[in-house]
Amino acid sequence: xxxxxxxSRVIDALNERVGQLVVWLVLLVxxxxxxxxxxxxxFHYSSNAYLEAQWYLFSLIFLWGAGWxxxxxxxxxxxxxxxxxxxxxxxxxxFLGTLVFLLPMVAxxxxxxxxxxxxxxxxxxxxxxxxxxxxxxxKVAMVIGFVLLGLQGISELIKRGLALAGKLxxxxxxxxxVV
Length: 179
Known about the structure:
Layout: H1 2-42, H2 48-71, H3 79-82, H4 87-122, H5 136-164, E1 168-171, E2 174-177
Antiparallel strand pairs: 1-2
Helix pairs in contact: 1-2, 1-5, 2-5, 4-5
Protein name: TRAP transporter small permease subunit
Keywords: Cell inner membrane, Cell membrane, Membrane, Transmembrane, Transmembrane helix, Transport
Main location: membrane
């Protein structure tokens, strides 16, 4: 049990740090978007690289923030039903939803995207647009995002499983071990 909880805590800490990075990416994409708009409307200058950098940063925010969002319970659920259920029923829904839907979906996406990503890295894929950015780094970032989401799913599975077994008390995202 302690080993599983230790694994969960390491995964939680990893996604927490990535979440802190994502906060800075939000600031960066905001500044880049504003600078890009100013350059286009004041100086009549535009660049595909600036536009693609915005898209890449938006992608990083969502892809790398998904694990952090799961850790903090921010993903969409049908709260009208979920909120009316007992704590144990909520734990079962979270546990089974992670096991049956989240983790298989992450595994499928990683399995299907792996050949595309490796080919992109191998050929050093570039944007087809003039002055565009390399495409392979954002494809690698996509894999990293789904790995982070899958890892957080495993962490949530561990915590919910231990809570269902009566070995862990879950309170406000911070698990405490039951003595």
